[in-house]
Design brief:
CATH architecture of the largest domain: 3-Layer(aba) Sandwich
CATH superfamily of the largest domain: Bordetella uptake gene, domain 1
Order of helices and strands: HEHEHEHHEHEHEHEHEEHHEH
CATH class of the largest domain: Alpha Beta
Radius of gyration: 21 Å
Number of helices: 12
Strand content: 15-25%
Helix content: 40-55%
Length: about 325
């Protein structure tokens, strides 16, 4: 029927891929998470399970700062059944570990951004600073005396603080922890003076008065803590950095299938009950096409590499 066998196979593939995407999923989906909270993947996974009639299994692999999770998904079959909850931390690791067995840009296809997570600059109440400007004055008066906590070297919590240091021209000392929880615990105890902490971990302590919030890195004030000014209001518009949770899949996943995942996840994220729960938890809502998420990632990769270079960040 077809004189050109290559044309035949091309047309066959063109017809089969959308059909495969339309039938997806026919078995459980594995959603792999690195060292990040699992709240949002579980919410999305539960809703998708109801939509599809197939289970979305949450598989947390926090080892080696996300390298275990990234390597696992990069090597998975590109059939749409293994996802990575991508975050900025994976792209920071790329820059700090250039010889990894995988590369986030080369080996992963972006699907969609689920939400962004602003950082809140918090201090222990004993710190005599009621604004970012006062904190900068204090740091300049006592160079090297103030400490800031992070969830670990190379995490976006460190990058946010390093960007603040560069912008303000101050000398504050990094104290890395193994995760957000122990870092916040020591700030609460006054062992460390400050931290740029993801909103979900900060909001309860800000609301209770156990931590003082000086600014939030979102474009507008958060409904969860409306009294906290944005970083721009505090005089630092260049600190344009947020945490985020997205979905990425192995690079060779068919585009028709990537588009279906994007459509279905965005449908879930658009539901009012989902949005209410996300806002209450401190997330900023997102609704991105595949192309928009790809552009979002590329912009952050440029920023991360600049911060790493200018701050001379190195692994401990």
């Amino acid at each position: 029927m077809f004189k050109n066998k290559y044309l035949y196979f091309f047309l066959l593939a063109a017809f089969c891929m959308p059909a495969h995407a339309q039938d997806f999923p026919t078995k459980p989906v594995r959603f792999v998470i690195g060292p990040a909270p699992e709240m949002l993947p579980r919410l999305v996974g539960q809703k998708l399970s109801e939509l599809w009639g197939q289970q979305v299994v949450i598989d947390q692999r926090p080892g080696a700062g996300g390298i275990v999770a990234g390597d696992l998904v990069a090597k998975a079959a590109p059939d749409g059944y293994t996802w990575l909850m991508s975050t900025g931390a994976f792209y920071v690791v790329d820059a700090l570990y250039p010889k990894l067995s995988y590369n986030m840009v080369r080996d992963f296809a972006p699907v969609t951004l689920m939400a962004s997570i602003p950082f809140i600059a918090v201090v222990h109440p004993a710190v005599p600073a009621k604004s970012l400007a006062e904190l900068v004055q204090l740091a300049k008066a006592q160079p090297g005396k103030l400490n800031f906590a992070s969830a670990g070297t190379g995490t976006t919590t460190q990058l946010a603080a390093e960007l603040f240091k560069l912008s303000a021209g101050i000398n504050i000392v990094h104290v890395p922890y193994k995760g957000v929880a122990p870092a916040v615990t020591d700030v609460l105890a006054g062992q460390v003076q400050m931290m740029f902490v993801v909103a979900q971990a900060a909001v309860p302590h800000v609301q209770s008065g156990k931590l003082r919030a000086l600014g939030i890195t979102s474009p507008k004030r958060s409904p969860a803590v409306p009294e906290v000014p944005t970083i721009t209001e505090g005089g630092f518009p260049e600190i344009d950095i947020v945490g985020w949770n997205g979905v990425s899949v192995p690079i060779k996943t068919p585009r028709a299938l990537v588009n279906k995942l994007n459509t279905d996840i965005r449908k879930i994220l658009g539901q009012k009950d989902m949005q209410d729960r996300m806002i209450a938890a401190g997330f900023d809502l997102a609704d991105t096409t595949v192309e928009q998420f790809d552009a979002f990632i590329k912009k952050d990769v440029v920023l991360y590499n600049r911060i790493i270079k200018e701050s001379k960040m190195k692994l401990d």
